[in-house]
Every structure is written in structure tokens, then in C-alpha cells.
Specification:
Layout (H helix, E strand, L loop, with lengths): L2 H14 L2 E4 L3 E8 L14 E8 L1 H9 L3 E4 L7 H12 L2 E3 L11 E6 L5 E6 L21 E5 L8 H11 L9 E5 L9 H10 L2 E5 H10 L16 H16 L3 E4 L5 E4 L6 E3 L13 H13 L4 H15 L3 E2 L2 E2 L4 H8 L2
Parallel strand pairs: 1-4, 1-8, 2-6, 4-5, 8-9, 9-10, 10-11
Antiparallel strand pairs: 2-3, 6-7, 11-12, 12-13, 14-15
Length: 344
């Protein structure tokens, strides 16, 4: 076989690989363990310090571990923190396909954790937040691609570029040959009414935890009467079913509401709510495995699995991730480990 044929075959194989693109933002978290937070003017020494990537990185890393092509479409700057972001993306096999911004560094957060596991955050926003209406103009998803939107992209000027992408995506998911997934945020009060409207009109697959779902319902004016679930015969399951049903009906779009070890509640337009059980697990840290869940779900959707099966596989991955951590951050398992638990 000629070299040109080999190169052509490899290029075709790469082009056909399932792909997850994130329009989110990546920064560095500097984890600092302290005995207690110092008072103003005092001095403290950290017991342990670890830089770790934050934002959409965990979602892309989880997707990459499932064997799909993971691509970051957000902005990366120019400086010491930007260099760190590029390094961790490369190590994880995540491609950067978004804009580069010269002369402005990427952002970072200082995350202080005391002996009682309480966290204090100090953030410096950088290049990732300085987008404009053209930030995502070059993103044209291929057939079968899953495009992920992170809640943090809704909260700064990069949201202008995101809004432009949503308008180009149209309001009918059936007219798209790719899939849009949005994980929400508790800070929806900081998102403009216009962007909320465009998000709802785009009808993505919404993925959120219970608190985020309740925040979204409140922002949309959806009143959920869960008084019946507060009786002896009611309970958590019925409350989750009601929340998923009422919010999903208002969104007119697929909805996934995560609930940790209990799994997730899923509703598709016009259908009933399905509770997809989680896998028994024992957490070894306090951080949520929600990013792992979302990333794995996106990867399996890109591979052609149904939404229900993608969520079930994501439940398995999250239950494994919560058992292991790197500096207090859940570590997404490999595809083989995830499928072994899924198939038990």
C-alpha cells in the first residue's frame, strides 16, 4: 500500500471518530490546604498546594477517557496560566480549536480548604472571558458531533459569542445532524433574559443537578407544588419525578437531573419521567462528580448510544470517579472500567 493511501485512510478514520466539542472555559485552580483562613493582615502556611485545571476541562477529560475526540473551543490566552492550560489539555489528548488571545493571560482561582473541608474561593478572570460575537464563528459541528455548553460561559462577555452560535443552530433539533448539550448553573440570576430565551429556544439536552434544576425552574417561572411529596407516602423519588416532569414540560426539551448515588431522572419531550438508578458507592471526598457524568454522557451520545443508556453509563462512571480523587477532585475512570461496571 502506498504511503499516500495510508495517510488518506488515517485521515478518514480521524474524521469519522466520534467528537465532543466544548464551548466552555478552562482555567487553573490552585488548591491550598490551610489549618484555618488567616484574618486580614495575618500570615498562614499551606499544608499542601496543587494546581489543577478547572472549568470545562473535567468534562472534556471524561469524554476523552471514553475514547472520543475531545475538543476545546474556548479562548486560551498568553502567559504562565495559559501555558499551564495548554499543557494539561495536551497531556489529556484534548485539542484546542478555539481562539488564542495574545498579551492577556488565562484566568485562575485560589481555592482554600480548611480542616473542616470548607472552601473559600478567590478568582481572577482572564482571556477565557473576553470573547465577542465572533468567538465561535469557526465552530461548524460535523454530523454526529456533540457540542457541550458550560454554565460558566453564560456569565461573562463570551456569552455574546455563544448567543450567536445558538442563533445559527436554530430552534429545531430535528434539523441539526449534531447534538447540543447544556449543563446549567446556579448563577442563572446573572444571565440575561435574552440569552435564557435563546437557550430555551435552541432546545438542547439540559443536564443539571437538583439545585441547578430548581434554580432553572425558578428563573423560568415554573411553580412546582411538591407538597404531596412531604407526606408519609411521599419522598425524594416523587419530588425528583415531579421536578423533572414540570421543568422538562416547560423546556420542551430533553432533561437530565442528576442526584448523586441515586442516579438521574430523565425526561424526553412528550414522554414519562424515567428514573435511571445509580451504582452504590462510597465517596472519599466532597467534590461532585457532575463534570465526569456530563462528559461521559456526551461521549456516549457521540458514539450513538441512546440518551437513557448514555445516562446509565455516566452513572457508572460517576460512581467510580467519586471513589478516587486527585487533590480532592474526582478522577474519571477509563472506558474499560466504566463499561465493566455498566455491564455487571
Amino acid at each position: 500500500m502506498r504511503l499516500s493511501s495510508i495517510i488518506s485512510d488515517r485521515a478518514k478514520s480521524a474524521a469519522d471518530k466520534p467528537t465532543v466539542i466544548s464551548l466552555g472555559q478552562v482555567w487553573m485552580d490552585i488548591m491550598l490546604d490551610v489549618d484555618e483562613m488567616p484574618q486580614t493582615g495575618d500570615f498562614a502556611v499551606t499544608r499542601n498546594t496543587k494546581p489543577t485545571p478547572g472549568g470545562s476541562y473535567r468534562i472534556l477529560d471524561a469524554a476523552s477517557r471514553m475514547g472520543v475526540r475531545a475538543q476545546h473551543a474556548g479562548i486560551i490566552g498568553d502567559g504562565i496560566w495559559a501555558m499551564a492550560v495548554r499543557t494539561v489539555l495536551k497531556r489529556a489528548g484534548i485539542e484546542h480549536i478555539g481562539p488564542d488571545l495574545d498579551d492577556v493571560d488565562s484566568g485562575f482561582r485560589l481555592v482554600f480548604k480548611d480542616e473542616e473541608e470548607r472552601k473559600t474561593y478567590i478568582a481572577h478572570y482572564g482571556a477565557e472571558t473576553l470573547g465577542d460575537e465572533h468567538t465561535f464563528d469557526a465552530i461548524k459541528p460535523a454530523s454526529g458531533t456533540v457540542v457541550h455548553i458550560s454554565g460558566n460561559t453564560l456569565l461573562n462577555q463570551t456569552a455574546v459569542g455563544l448567543d450567536g452560535f445558538l442563533r445559527r443552530a436554530g430552534t429545531d433539533p430535528k434539523q441539526r445532524d449534531w447534538t447540543l448539550v447544556l449543563n446549567s448553573t446556579n448563577a442563572l440570576n446573572q444571565v440575561s433574559d435574552k440569552l435564557i430565551e435563546d437557550l430555551v429556544l435552541a432546545r438542547p439536552i439540559w443536564s443539571c443537578n437538583r439545585q441547578e434544576a430548581e434554580t432553572l425552574a425558578d428563573r423560568m417561572g415554573v411553580h412546582i407544588d411538591d407538597s404531596a411529596t412531604m407526606t408519609v407516602g411521599g419522598g425524594f423519588d416523587e419530588s425528583m419525578r415531579l421536578l423533572c416532569d414540570e421543568l422538562g414540560n416547560a423546556l420542551r426539551a430533553p432533561l437530565v437531573v442528576r442526584a448523586g448515588s441515586r442516579g438521574a431522572w430523565v425526561r424526553k419531550p412528550g414522554g414519562d419521567v424515567e428514573h435511571i438508578e445509580g451504582f452504590p458507592t462510597k465517596a472519599v471526598h466532597t467534590r461532585s462528580a457532575g463534570s465526569c457524568h456530563t462528559g461521559v454522557m456526551c461521549a456516549m451520545l457521540a458514539k450513538g448510544w441512546s440518551l437513557a443508556d448514555s445516562v446509565r453509563i455516566a452513572n457508572a462512571a460517576a460512581s467510580l470517579a467519586i471513589q478516587h480523587n486527585d487533590g480532592g477532585v474526582p478522577v474519571c475512570p477509563s472506558y474499560e472500567e466504566t463499561m465493566a461496571l455498566f455491564e455487571e
